[in-house]
Structure formats: C-alpha cells, structure tokens
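Allow me, if you will, to draw on your knowledge of protein folds for a short while. I have a record of one protein: its chain in single-letter code and its fold written as discrete structure tokens. I should value your view on which stretches of the chain appear to form regular backbone elements. Thank you for your consideration; the sequence and its tokens are set out here:
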Amino acid sequence: MRVLRTTSLLPLVAALSSSDEAPHAKRVAIIGAGAGGSSAAYHLAQYAAEESTPTYITVFERNSYIGGRTTTVNAWDDPDLAIELGGSIFVDVNHIMVDAMRNFSLFPAEQNLAAQLELPDLGIWNGQQFIIVTKASDTWWDKAKLLWRYGTAPLWTNRLMKSVVGKFLTMYDGPVFPWKSLSDVVERVGLLEVTGVTGEQYLKSNGIGDSFAKEVVQASTRVNYASNLRYIHGLETMVCMATSGARQIKGGNWQIFDRMLRFSRSTLHLNTTIARISKQRDGTYEVSTSTGQVSTYNEVILATPLQYADLIIDPAPKYIPDEIPYMKLYTTLFASPHALDPKAFNLDAETPVPATVLTTLPPAEEPVDGVGSPSFYSISISGAGVNPLSSTPRREFIYKIFSPSRVNSTFLSHMLGQEVSGKEAEHGDADGTVSWIYHKIWYSYPREYPRVTFEEIKLDEGLWYTSGIESFISTMETSALSGKNVARLIRDEWINAKGETASGRVGKDAEVLEL
C-alpha cells in the first residue's frame, strides 16, 4: 500500500501556525482527503484568493494516504507497477478531473494493453456463454453485426445517455451552480424522473429493448455499481454508458487529489481521526482528534460519509444525514504467468479470453439484488510486469476481480485452469501459480436505489456535507463537484456577510450624521 507521511507533505502544503494568521482570517477544517475534501480545499483556496479573504485550511485524514477510495497498490512492492485499487477511470464529461489532469501536467496511462497482448478487448459473459466479444480492430462490418443483433437500441441508448448527461452538466455553471439543495437542483434540471425509477423502468419507458438493456447496459451497471438494472436508478444507469474518452492517470488517479491539496496550501494531517465536533456559542466549532488535540474553526466540511466517520457532533446539527446502505465489494488484485483458462468460460482451448470480462445474468434467470449465477462482476487484466521475486524472473499478468465475496483458491484454480493453493490465494507464492495477491473490502458506493430526495448540503450554520451526492451519482468526478459546490457556497456566504457588515456601518454613520 502506498504510504504518504504527513512530515513529507508539510513543506509542500505550507503548514501554518496560529501566529502566522492574519487578523479576521477564516479557519476551515475539512474532514477527509478523498475527492470531495481535496476538491473543497482546492476550490475554496482559489475562491478566497479571488476575494482577498485570508483563509487557513486544515485537512484531516484518518488514512495514511490521500485519495480515499481512489488509491493504488504496487504489485510485488515494485514502485513502477502501481495498480488502481479503487476509482479506476474517468471520462471526457468529467470536466473537473480532465481539467485537473491538464492543469497539473499529469499524463494518462497507456490503454492499449489488450492489443499488446493480442487479446480481444472486451467480452460480456452471462455465466454460460459470451454474448459479445469486441476488439479494438473491429471493422464497420463487425459494428454493423452488433446493430443487427440489437436493432437501433445502441443508437437510442446513446442518444438517451447524451440527453441525461447534458442535463447533469448544467449543474456545473450558473445560473444553476452553486446549488444550496441537491433535491431542488435535481428537480430544477429535469433529472427527478430519471432518479425516481429503476434503470430497467427508465430504459423500457424510452423504448430500449430488453435484450440490449439486460445484456449490455446491465453488464455496465454491474461492473460500475455491482447492481442489476432492477436495483439501480435510471440516472446512474445512464452514467454507466458515458464511456467516451475513458482514461486513468499514469501512476494513479490519486495524484489529482494530491495536487489539489498541494496547490490549496492546506495543512494536512494524515493518520488523524476526528472524534468530536463541538459547536460553540459564538458559532465556531471545536474539532477534537482522537488523541485529544483541539482546534477552533469558522467552518467545518465533512467530506466523508457520516455513518462511517465514527465521530460525535455536539450538539446534534439541524440536519442529520440518513444512514443508507453501502455496497460491500471485494476487490482482488493478483499476478500470475497464466492466462485465463478458456474452459472456465466454455470456450475451446484455442480461443483466447478477452482482456476484460464483464458479466450479466443468463436469459432465464430472474434479476436479483446481487451477483446471481455468474458469481463475480468482472475480471480484467489491469497490467503486466516482470515478477522480480521469483527464482527465475518471469513476465506475468496482473488481474483485478470485483466480486461479492472473498476470492478463494477454488475460484482462482477454475479461472486459471491451474492448481492454486490456499496459501497462494491468501498471500501469494513468488514461484507459484499466483505469485502476488492483494485483498481489499470496500464500502464502495451507496446502493443506488431509486429516490427523489437527497441529503442536505448544509447540516447547520458553518457545518457542510459533501457525501450526500453519492446516492445521486457516485464517481470521483461528482465527489469533486460536490466539494467545489460547498466551497462556492462558503465563499458566497462570506461575501454576503461582508456586505451586511458594510451596510451596517453605513447605517450607523448615517445615524451619527443625523444627530
């Protein structure tokens, strides 16, 4: 696991003591250094600079690294082989992520691994057979055959996706941005009818045939949100189909959020858990760490799901976010010199398995709120490299599996067509079938059930919440957008407060003149 220590970052984020602060400076605490917290710090620092408002931002993160659910692991502890463990890709319509990549001079990772390995790019498997297999080299004739299978459903789905995403993108700019209420803005931009129904209902009501919906769209909702179409709302379903320009940052997407914090010049405290937030009579907040350190702030931004924050807010805020179900997802990374076994997918021995395998349900299987008979959501080749720990260095594939339960030796033996021991399935064996393995349980995203109301952004005066957006859309981009939105709302309140103060002074001066 990548570890970033506080001491190594402090020179970069310009840690400031209270004696450095300008009179009447605003002090802001952000709890969480993931996408939402990092974006809030970055954009608030920009807004404060534009308005010449002295602002001191402190970010608290209980993990040893920046990025939250966007983090990497190094295969065989090789620093040159960083594999995404959490948020893996972002796309063209993710404006904050794309702009940050450009502004911070970060570079996309190579995306042509399947071609290098001479494998098909993508296959959709229903537990019995591959429904679709695609290659980067597919001709227009291959694409035409896909249309024959599904008629115009792919074209209409793409148009529907563009319409829905277009409505969402209006949330980035005025007059819609910034929004004080997520529930209100969803209705205002015309997305209430999309979040209020299931993906299955939304596609059917828009004339998308069952075959394309259940075979292709459902494969996308499963890999992205571990959900079948009957158990995910229509908006998140459409988001899954916005795949144009998919990319990731070379070395890890977490670097975007690392740069945001550096450029915000925030004081960063890693390995630091917040135990209590206490509102004071003057409207400020005392923020207490689990080790007993206490500091006072004008504003506090909760940039982590409150139900997992394990902290006390005293007194209770005006609004308390609902505790909602999150998906418990097992992510497994492992390395092996062996390709996936065609027999595991009912293929003949000479037919290669695609580099990325997505799953859906077979035709006769009733949709369930779970993985169903395929038993996993996806398996893909995420990288390749030379195993430096084996007695004879050998080139190996690095795989990633999303599943509802912990991967064991039986499953791995079946997938590889080679015996995998219990030890290898747990810890790897440098010279074994599985040379390296990493298991991770994520509470990765809310169960995206249909809903028409969302959590409050402002829980109380001076107390803000970014994670309510996750049951609307849960991505790196939308968490970053929520952080930016909160930053703008805080900035606007500061400006309004300045105006009211100035107006009050004018009134008092006028009274003096009249006397």
The two ends are 71 Å apart (CA to CA).
